[in-house]
Amino acid sequence: MRTRSMTTKKSSGSGGGTSVADFLLLLTIAFISIGFLATVLAPKGEALAALEARAAGEHRSLAARLKSARDVEREWARLLAALRRRMPGESEAAGDEQVVEKARREREEVESALADLRRGREAALADVDALRARCRDFDARSAEAARLETDLEERTEQASRLEDEKRLLAGVEAELRATASRVAAERAQAESLRHELARLEDRLEALADLEKRVGSLRMSREEREELIAKLRKETEGLEGQVAAVRRERDDLQKIPARDLVRGGTTKAPLFVECDGKGAWAMPARQLFEKAAPADAKEAFLKAARERGYVLFLVRPDGFKAFDRYREILEEHNARSRALVDLGYEPVDAAWQLAYPGA
Description:
Order of helices and strands: HHHHEEEEHEHEE
Strand order of the largest sheet: 4-3-2-5-6
Shape: rod-shaped
Low-confidence stretches: 1-18
Strand content: 5-15%
Structural class: alpha/beta
Radius of gyration: 56 Å
Distance between the termini: 137 Å
Helix content: over 70%
Number of helices: 6
């Protein structure tokens, strides 16, 4: 019975050694897997924390197995001492010593494995700290990259706006140059007409002087009347020519209101000239009072809806009237589906404007 019991104990001890070896193999594989996962999932802080917790759990499990092995060793030593007291035979003592020696070797192997595991755990913790530092550096670089990307987008948008403004300014400059060329040509033509007018006025004065001289000559009554009628007829013709030249000169000095339309629209605008008295619908010269009473407001909106586009021409003293009727038009657009486009252009007090259909 004692021999069978000892054999059973030895078998149990041998089974425990095999289990510990398998456990060490599995734990080594687990640490290799943990190292691989730590390399692959380096940017993931939560995964690193989970791996660290798992390594700590494996370490606690191995320590528990080591404690269990030490308890088995103590139990074997106790049983060996009991067997020696009961069966002091030399062969059995040698066999018990072999069992104890085997248990001691297994314990040393387990302790060595535990030390390796501790060193591996420390190395893994160091790798985890390094990976955490890399994660923090990666997060900082990502934040900096996001900031730089946002700054780049803002600068790109600013550059696009500047380019649009540059193109708009180039268009305005081209329009101004064209307008300046037309004004220069019209001024040259007006100067020519002034010279022609001066020449005709000089001729008219010469004819008047001639009429006076003829009156002083001794002629027959019929001859004098005929000459005077001829001179008067020629004088009336010259006066008509002078009046026509003056009207043409005045027209040339006027600025076409159509040239003030911006934006390339094809709509024929309702020209509204604003001054100190109020807003004038041109060329009909319909006055909308500056205070904008109800009847003036309704008449203004009716005329604006008919055209669909209002161009305010603002004199230096007409900004109050412009502000009032612009607000009326914006309120109409806010509550109506029939939108009316609007634009404005400041004009000098001395400018004479020529309106279409005038």
